[in-house]
Amino acid sequence: MSEAPYAFVDAVTSDLRFVARGATLEALFGAAAEALLAATLEDPRSVAPRVEETLRLEEPALDLLLLRFLNELVYLRDARGLLLRPRELAVREAEGSARLDAVLAGEPIERSRHELTSDVKAATPHGLRVERTAEGWEASVTLDV
Amino acid sequence: MTAPAGLREIAPAIWELPVGFRPGMRVPVRVFGTEKLVGDFDDQVFLQAANVATLPGIVGASLCMPDAHWGYGFPIGGVAAVDPEKGVISPGGIGFDINCGMRLVRTDLCWRDVRPRLRELVERLAARVPAGVGTRGFVRVNRREFHEVMREGAAWAVRRGMGTLEDLEHTESRGCFEGADPDCVSDHAIERGMPQIGTLGSGNHYLEIQVLHDEHVYDRALAQAFGLSLPEQVVVMFHCGSRGFGHQVATDYVQQFLRDMPVKFGISVVDRELACAPFASAEGRAYFAAMSCAANMSFANRQVILHRVREVFSDVFGRDPEALGIHTVYDVAHNTARLEHIPTESGERTLLVHRKGATRALPPGHPELPEVYRATGQPVIIGGSMETGSHLLVGAPGSLASYYSSAHGSGRTMSRHRARKLVHGRDLQRRMEERGILVRAASARGLAEEAGFAYKDVDAVAEAVERAGLSRRVAHLLPVGNVKG
Predict the structure, then answer these.
(1) Among residues A19, B132, B207, B302, which one has the fewest Cβ atoms lying within 10 Å of its Cβ?
(2) A60 occurs within a structural domain
């Protein structure tokens, strides 16, 4: 399995910022979800696909959609105790609207197998960026921890 | 870094950046701190404070406390007062951890009583006060009860037998913000918050046993007035907030305001984390009511944690908490917005004061002070890193210059990411134990992120607020045991 295309960068002193990349919007959103998991627990590979959740979101712009998507993942972890990543993902952008349909797969937190590290409070719009690059898409996201 | 050109000291330890430093500033930036502290600020602090100065309705100046550091939207350590009729409310000026705050609790125990039982105390506190990521609280509530928590705050816990009326008296706003309306809170937020009453959390949240050594008392009369007069007296300090509940309230409204700002309000901001709504709008009022619910949940959280601390001390020493003299000195909120009455040159005004990583610091005689502190002023708690200790201060008349605000902590100077690269949590734990500080941490990685070297010098911060006239130092408290989230 290849390394997820994201990297944590030194930025806001009290928080965590990552840059994620993907050839497509779906790959970009998947990489961002993987970065969120990496911020949350020591070994994201320890999360097995045992349960599924579906998610349908709509926002006025792509960057707001990414923000909302990550914050839904934060909510599902904190309220429902679920560690999830997208199994199927479709992201569509139209005039004044961006939509996401996802099937998320993962499992409930089990402390014996999942070493949790940071309590990500939220993905924030501070320095939020989603843009096209020569290779596809790139996003920068700041997590409040 | 070098301080920006144009920054000048207008009074001892008070600096000003004039309007014009950045386009769109409506008021100047005013920074409190010594030349050394201000000179060491991240460049971003000045830029972010200048961004805050562009917010509609801001009054006087955009303020920075001496522990200010790079945040998102507002700097952490940022204070802004806004005209409630013409101005905005911004969740980014309050933070995601709404009413993250600090409680200081005194005991009648001395270090010689606690020393032989320290390990047992720390182990039991770590076992009985849930800390770390994803922990569930020790207080179970149903949805109806959670609505009561949102409305009543710390009084809810006291009504349930988890505290005293004196605890409420010694809590900012008696542990309850007015205007809390559960109807303004999402189901997502309630689902996150309900299981988390009675949890410390993670990150920079902690519960500490501290000792006050005689040589660390700056003002003996004030220390005595705060109940600190025994030799090597043991106190407990803890730092936590509204947990996932507050995080979700902030998330919900930041996302809503980002959608509404250009369409409904015609407001544009220079940093989207400054997303805001006119305070007088239905949306602005709804956020204020939801934020107040989160503030109240946080007051209740700290109150039930105090109850647990009392139980643990009582178990270990075989005496009831009253006999051990366990009393709240004070409980302060860090991340809030409140409507406050502020004297100005044109008479008293009601202003919406945002504090993000700043505490209130009411001076002697202020009418909102509880009777017991009317003559002394409000106890102000500046939490240091887990290695350096914390300061107890008191609000001073000069705090009018900061809308009655003061510093809240030592302030980070290094990212969590970098701190983790420099030290391993278990090595740090061993080194601290060698120096007489017993630590129990939910996560080794989390512990490394909170190493003392990642923070500013807390003594310098306390000295700076004193020099600026915002607060006066009373005592410096040293940690001996720490439960780390």
Answers:
(1) A19
(2) yes
Instruction: Residue A41: give its domain's CATH number.
Output: 3.55.10.10
Q: Which residues of A touch B203 (CB under 8 A)?
A: 118-119, 145
Q: Which domain holds residue B73?
A: 8-413+455-484
CATH number, domain of B159, equals 3.90.1860.10
Angle, to 10 degrees, between the axis of helix A62-80 and the axis of helix B243-260?
A: 160
**Gap between the Cα atoms of B87 and B57, Å rounded:** 4
Nearest-Cα residue of chain A relative to residue B73: A126
- Out of B69, B170, B247, B408, the active site residue is B408
Please tell me the predicted confidence (pLDDT) of residue B176: 98
Among B76, B251, B275, beta carbon nearest to A14: B76
Structural domain total, chain A: 1
The total of structural domains in chain B comes to 1
Q: How confident is the model at residue A4 (pLDDT cuts 50, 70, 90)?
A: low
Closest CA to B182 of B337, B294, B304: B294
Q: Is the dihedral of CA B50, B52, B57, B62 positive or negative?
A: negative
Helix, strand or coil, per DSSP, at residue B12: coil
Classify residue B224: in a domain, yes or no.
yes
Low-confidence ranges of chain B (pLDDT < 70): 1-2
Q: Identify whether A1 is part of a domain.
A: no
Chain B residues whose beta carbon lies within 8 Å of the beta carbon of residue A18: none
Q: Please indicate, yes or no, if residue B243 is contained in any of the structural domains.
A: yes
